[in-house]
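Researcher: Let's try something more involved. This one mixes different molecule types, so please make sure each is placed in the same coordinate frame as the others.
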Amino acid sequence: MNFCNQCGARVELRIPPGDLIARHVCDACGHIHYQNPKLVLGSIPEWEGRLLLCRRAIEPRYGYWTLPAGFMENDETVAEAALRETQEEAGARVELGAVFSMISVPRVNQVHVFYLARLGALEFQPGEETLEVRLFDEGAIPWEQVAFRTVAATLRHWFADRGKGSFGFHAEDIR
Amino acid sequence: MNFCNQCGARVELRIPPGDLIARHVCDACGHIHYQNPKLVLGSIPEWEGRLLLCRRAIEPRYGYWTLPAGFMENDETVAEAALRETQEEAGARVELGAVFSMISVPRVNQVHVFYLARLGALEFQPGEETLEVRLFDEGAIPWEQVAFRTVAATLRHWFADRGKGSFGFHAEDIR
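Model: All components are placed in one shared frame. Result:
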């Protein structure tokens, strides 16, 4: 960040009075530009024991497999974000269950949250950011080609919990 | 937002190609400025059945009572943010338990997350943004003077769950 988005003057990176963290501060208009982590919301769409994965048509991780997920937008709830991303990326309507995983990734300033979900019908199709959408049995999950560690962790927890017969809530960090 | 924080040129609010939402776009350098919801992290510090609340020394809701909580920062995890805010606002060290509530507030583009927590010792003191810190029995909670609806909802769930003898996870929205 080089310029103030309020007044256009140059900003300076320093610790404001009463703060502990360096911020981009504008001396012309006084605005302090805070930067905070972003939420990524997604779902784990299930159909008769199989899970729906999307093969990415964009970077990062072009060609790798992921759960439908993306950045939460302003003016929506976490559940609305998960439903929207599932519709946009997988062309799928799901019924959301409980929140299943919440994974902090401080290296990229993100928190990833995934909902349990059931496909409403055997209908799905790749959206603009997706090459291919497919249902996978546990044995067919392309573990070596899963796009993100948060997705791999969420899938592992899902199959482990299914094995136990009970789905919990999983909060963890990826360093 | 009026100016590009990368190059200082004026930005325009419009829907970029392939997008569905209006963004602040810079025609000079091509940068698209996304704005996303912020995470607010806090804890529910408990000591022998009583909960620790902070009376706010800042706006909004100056003088009202709240759980220790604040904006998650870059380079930290959700748990680290909850611990830091509890230390900063209440001068208290806690041991975090499970994530207890996750409440979307789309009107202000925030998601509030609270952890179960135990005070490590009977030690707390107001930080710079706090007038007073005090432990409350259920009967003494100043419900009419609770600062935020997410805090009131979290407190109600906490006492209800304690009554049932089991603490769950509560995801909801406040419109």
